[in-house]
Write a structure and sequence with these properties.
The complex is a heterotrimer of chains A (116), B (104) and C (201). Chain A has 116 residues and is α+β, with helices and mostly antiparallel strands. Chain A contains 3 helices and 5 strands. In chain C, helix 3 packs across helix 10, helix 4 packs across helix 5 and helix 8 crosses helix 9. Classes of the chains: A alpha+beta (116), B mainly alpha (104), C mainly alpha (201). The interface between B and C is large, with 53 and 52 residues.
Chain lengths: 116, 104, 201
């Protein structure tokens, strides 16, 4: 019998499938820390876009512990770690061609960051 | 991967085209594809990360010239084939069979 | 649901999808009725009217607004709009000084329980490419001329957090009920590519 039946649908849709993990993992960074997105170029799955790599930003919020996608893609292993909302100034990302008075916020896992 | 899906900051894609009162599904098959994601996910055939990566692995030209739910379909086919759940030969055969039978 | 194609023969893609669904059903892995239920559920009950209710509540109830900005997930759950692709929510507030805009450059991540399924433009290359590097240009294309005194803040939804913009309540809406206010709130204003217009007098 199929795993997903009509009866199960409403509960599944309402409940969702959060990637938050109940793991006691210490954060590497705190709000206000200056961080740099690391320069990695994996051929596998990552959620670190090229336009952020090597750029310096500031940790704005700690979202808590979530499964690291670059590992989850294995379908087998999970690597719980903190993910932060990190703020980057427009000029940091795009140089002189950036919009005036612009910023970008993106969610960075511990594994994507180093101290700056 | 440094695939074509990693679009942030790229130039040259032209204006943002918008449709008024756009339906969720522009054709019945899109709704089926949408539902098939949940069905396959619930069956444990793949997780969201694998599903996304399946799309990322599309050939760049194909990614840019096909529609959103065609991307989903491509990923289903890739993953189900890699996991031996539905082979591409089976799929081709069934598609030919249904087309011959009149398609409805 | 699209009915324009009823007289045309099914496309190659339609046949491919039918073949895939048929095979999975024959193998006992998929139940087509579940897919019917999903389509109906999303088409009839999951859409931006949900998010509009959240916004209208925040506009009329300052304590709710505070909770919403502090813990979007919990506050949105109070109104019953939780679920798939909205499990972990962050709500960001537009003010006179800051205008927020949401994108997913890598794919199409979007808060389904509050906004429904995303429009094609949100999932396509032009928006995904340009919103992060030229958000003011994108806003102009949408008819929003943002002052340079206001900071444009773009949120790239690359992880599993989903973002909802709390647009500014327009002037001229004093005394309106929550229901009336919700009717003013557009989907695009909750993505951040529009502002909520004052009601026509």
């Amino acid at each position: 019998m199929a795993a997903l039946t009509s009866e199960i649908v409403p509960g599944l849709v309402a409940g969702g499938a959060s990637c938050r993990m109940d793991a006691d993992v210490a954060p590497k960074f705190g709000v206000g820390d200056k961080v740099r997105a690391i320069n990695i170029n994996p051929i596998g799955h990552t959620r670190l876009p090229r336009y952020i790599r090597g750029k310096v930003g500031t940790v704005a919020r700690d979202h808590g512990v979530f499964a690291f996608p670059d590992t989850s893609v294995s379908g087998v292993h999970r690597d719980p770690q903190h993910v932060y909302s990190v703020r980057f100034e427009g000029e940091e990302l795009w140089g002189a061609d950036a919009n005036a008075n612009s910023s970008l916020y993106i969610d960075m896992f511990d594994n994507y960051l180093e101290s700056a | 991967m440094n695939g074509i899906h990693d679009l942030g900051g790229m130039h040259g894609f032209g204006p943002i085209e918008r449709e008024t009162d756009e339906p969720y599904f522009h054709d019945d098959w899109e709704g089926r594809v949408f539902g098939l994601f949940f069905a396959n996910f619930a069956a444990g055939h793949f997780n969201v990360d694998q599903f996304r990566h399946g799309i990322e692995r599309m050939a760049a030209a194909e990614y840019l010239s096909t529609s959103y739910y065609e991307h989903w379909l491509h990923s289903f086919e890739t993953l189900l084939s890699e996991k031996g759940i539905v082979t591409s030969e089976e799929l081709d055969r069934k598609q030919a069979e249904l087309s011959q039978a009149g398609g409805a | 649901m699209a009915h324009d194609h009823q007289n045309a023969p099914p496309s190659e893609t339609a046949m491919r999808v039918k073949a895939l669904e048929t095979l999975l059903t024959e193998k006992g892995l998929v139940d087509p009725a579940a897919i019917d239920t999903l389509i109906e559920l999303y088409e009839t009950r999951v859409g931006p009217r949900n998010g509009a209710k959240v916004v209208a509540r925040a506009w009329t109830d300052p304590d709710y607004k505070e909770r919403l900005l502090k813990d979007g997930t919990a506050a949105i759950a109070e109104l019953g709009f939780s679920g798939v692709q909205g499990e972990d929510m962050v709500v960001v507030e537009n003010t006179d000084d800051v205008h927020n805009m949401v994108v997913c450059t890598l794919c199409s991540c979007y808060p389904w329980p509050t906004l429904g399924l995303p429009p094609i433009w949100y999932k396509s290359a032009p928006y995904r490419a340009r919103s992060v590097s030229d958000p003011r240009g994108v806003l102009k294309e949408f008819g929003v001329d943002l002052s340079e005194d206001a900071e444009i803040r773009v949120w790239d939804s690359n992880a599993e957090l989903r973002y909802l913009v709390l647009p500014q309540r327009p002037a001229g809406t004093e005394g309106m009920s929550e229901e009336q206010l919700a009717e003013l709130v557009t989907r695009d204003s909750m993505i951040g590519t529009a502002v909520v217009e004052a009601p026509a007098s």
